[in-house]
Amino acid sequence: MRPLSLVAPLALSVILAGCASEPVMQDGIRVNDPFERQNRRVHAFNKAFDERVVAPVARLASPGDGASDSPGAMDLVINAGSNLSLPGKVVNSVMQGRPEPAIKNFFRFAVNTTLGIGGLFDPAGRDFGLPEQDTDFGETLAVWGVPEGVYLELPILGPSTQRDAVGKVVDLAIDPLNHVLHRDGAWAAFGLRVASKAGDRARFGETVDSVLQGSADSYAQLRLIYLMHRRHELNEEGTEIDPYAETADDAIDPYAE
After folding, report:
1. Of 77, 92, 116, 173, which is most buried, counting CB atoms within 10 Å of its CB?
2. Domain region containing 151
3. Do the beta carbons of residue 21 and residue 151 sit within 8 Å?
């Protein structure tokens, strides 16, 4: 099956579903959440899963604290997982008609895969001024004019929208590594990318805990943070937040891809 043959029907379903309900306002942010009851059930599961599984594993595998120039073991895993995501980002940038980030991510992947020993190290960013240009198929759909649809909380994956949920599926389908690696290699690459998320969870542990465990209504708080952050990334609705802020309320999406 051709991955791109899935795009049109999936995008159409997002458009139709996105028009099915009236949004409400939360702290000045438009929220379209007709499935709130079901989403809250999923959120309760995700919160318990994070508390009992993800957080303990992340603490055990905590990355280096930055006090040394030598990266810790989890830092290497994070680097490798991030490097493996770059070919898919190149494809998305091309589909968005944005050659500059596509070229930068291509050369970043080439440099880190070779000089960085399979992406364990980051000479592209450190020595060549090639930071990662983040994107995904959810952003590609946004560039193509597909609305975000309703808010969803996905099991394990966390906050999303219909558009971004479609994007996660298509990102797996169009990832070039899935088509050039044999099955075991593809699964190993996927496992590294999943493991790198544990490192991200450890890096932002206090922030994530403050949202999930310290909020009076962690579901509403996480929903607000995700929508603000995502719309800021996509330049939608002119949300004025700092994506590099250190506080949970301003920036962090604990389940971001």
Report:
1. 92
2. 3-233
3. no
Please state, for a pLDDT cut of 90, what percent of the chain lies above it: 53
Residue 179 C-alpha from the chain's centroid: 22
Which tokens sit at 80?
A: 């490798």
Mean pLDDT of 148-171: 96
Residue 243 lies in a domain: no
- Bridge partners (DSSP) listed for residue 63: none
User: Shortest CA distance to 257 belongs to which of 210, 192, 194?
Assistant: 194
Inter-residue contact 77 to 62 (CB < 8 Å): no
**Which pTM was predicted?**
0.80
Number of domains in the chain: 1
Domain presence at residue 158: yes
SS3 category, 144: coil
* In a domain? residue 249: no
Q: Give the β-pairing of 151-154 and 29-31.
A: unpaired
Residue at token pair 């690696």: 181
Q: Is residue 89 part of a domain?
A: yes
Write down the H helix ranges in the chain.
7-18, 36-49, 55-60, 73-84, 86-95, 99-114, 123-127, 137-143, 162-174, 177-180, 183-203, 205-212, 218-233
* Chain centre to alpha carbon of residue 77: 17
